[in-house]
Structure formats: structure tokens, C-alpha cells
Design goal:
Tetracycline Repressor, domain 2, elongated, 234 residues, 0% strand, single chain, mainly alpha, 2 domains, Arc Repressor Mutant, subunit A, 65% helix
Length: 234
């Protein structure tokens, strides 16, 4: 009798073996090591850009601050400009995350929602002045494309403010006001006040700076409460 042995395919549940071309060093894959080096370069750049400024910093200085050799710089970035964009993006994400977290705990009142957002921004540049120099000074001095990063950040906050205003005040209460322009202008004012505060060495107490930032909002809400005629000229 002829016996035929039939092999039944079975699902392989074992974990796939790492590619032989991906050698681990200290248990870390090459991709992870590259990610770690990239993070070190960003941290080194925050130190150099935030203390010397973008235009006065070199690739070598960033690599020294990152404790890496220069050959690793071009593994992650094509230029110092590209590195700056990565630095700015990281700071922007951190600032927005802090802002949104503060809003979750804020009182549901007009000024109650604004005060913590303004304070978070001021704290962000005061607790680490490197952040302020990078976001408020260097970002505007490299070129138009990089400056657009700053404009986009301001627009993100202006959009949050516009949503806040739309919830607070029906459109028919302020028919002659463009909320987009109003939100952009108010955020621009906050940024300029923060930059002035930073240039003065944060000498003014932060509570006073927060109150100064809030004053135009208080006046605006008072006008809104008076109805459409309160916003019209004589």
C-alpha cells in the first residue's frame, strides 16, 4: 500500500526574526539609535539657538552640545534651517499641549478661559528663555518660509480665540466686527507684549503682565454686553 504523507500548513505564531541587516547595538535597533541622535541634535540646537541665536550658531557647535560627531548631523537634517524648523515644531507642539491642558481645568467664563492660556504662554518663555528667543526672535529673522511657522502658531491661537468668541457672543451682537481680524489682532497684541516682557528681562511680575494682557479683553466683553450700538461710533 502506498502511503502519502500530506503536510498540513500551520500558522506560524512565532515572532518574526529581525532582519539580518539590522544589527542591534546594546539591544537597540538602528532606527531607534537614529531617532535618539535626532532628539539629541534638537536638544543641542535648543541650547545653541536659544543662547547664541540661529545666525551665530554652527553645525559643529550644535553637535558638540548634542555630544555627537558632525557626521551624524546630516543623517537627520540637510541644513541648519531644516534643524530650526524641527526645533520650532517641537516647541510649538509642547506649548499647544500645555495650553489645551490648562483649558480643560479652566472656569467656563469669558476671562476664565483666557487667563490660563495667556499665563501658560508667558510661563513657557519665562521658565526657559531659550524658548522665547527661538519662537519670538529667530523665527522671524531667517526667511519668509520659516517666519510662516510663527504666523501659523499665531493663527492656531487666533482660531481658538475665535471659537471662544463665537460661543460667547451671537453674530448679531457684533455685526460690524470681523472676528477673524479681531482674533488675529488680539493674539498679535499678546505676542508683542510677551516679546517686550522678555526683552526687559521678565522684570515685571507675571501677574501684572497677565492682567495687562487681559485688559483689552475685559473692555471688549464690556462693549459686547452693551449690544450692537455699543460697538458703533457716534
Amino acid at each position: 500500500m502506498l502511503h502519502v504523507k500530506i503536510a498540513i500548513p500551520m500558522e506560524n505564531t512565532a515572532s518574526p526574526l529581525p532582519s539580518p541587516n539590522k544589527r542591534r547595538y546594546g539591544g537597540v535597533l538602528p532606527e531607534e539609535r537614529q531617532r535618539q541622535r535626532r532628539e539629541k541634535l534638537i536638544e543641542g540646537a535648543i541650547e545653541m539657538f536659544g543662547t547664541k541665536g540661529f545666525h551665530a550658531s554652527t553645525v559643529r557647535e550644535v553637535c558638540v552640545a548634542a555630544h555627537l560627531t558632525e557626521r551624524y548631523f546630516y543623517e537627520s537634517f540637510r541644513s541648519m534651517r531644516e534643524l530650526f524648523q524641527a526645533v520650532y515644531g517641537q516647541l510649538r507642539e509642547e506649548l499647544m499641549a500645555r495650553t489645551l491642558q490648562s483649558l480643560q481645568k479652566a472656569p467656563l467664563t469669558p476671562l476664565g478661559m483666557l487667563e490660563p492660556a495667556i499665563r501658560v504662554f508667558l510661563d513657557f518663555i519665562r521658565e526657559d528663555p531659550r524658548h522665547g528667543r527661538i519662537m519670538l526672535v529667530d523665527a522671524l529673522s531667517i526667511d519668509a518660509e520659516v517666519a510662516q511657522l510663527s504666523n501659523e502658531t499665531a493663527r492656531d491661537y487666533a482660531d481658538l480665540l475665535k471659537l471662544h468668541l463665537q460661543r460667547l457672543v451671537p453674530a448679531d451682537r457684533i455685526p460690524d466686527v470681523d472676528l477673524n481680524l479681531l482674533a488675529d489682532g488680539l493674539i498679535g497684541m499678546n505676542v508683542l507684549l510677551a516679546a517686550r516682557w522678555m526683552h526687559d528681562g521678565f522684570a515685571t511680575p507675571i501677574d501684572k503682565v497677565v492682567a495687562t494682557n487681559l485688559l483689552p479683553y475685559q473692555g471688549m466683553f464690556s462693549l459686547m454686553e452693551s449690544g450692537p450700538t455699543g460697538l458703533s461710533g457716534p
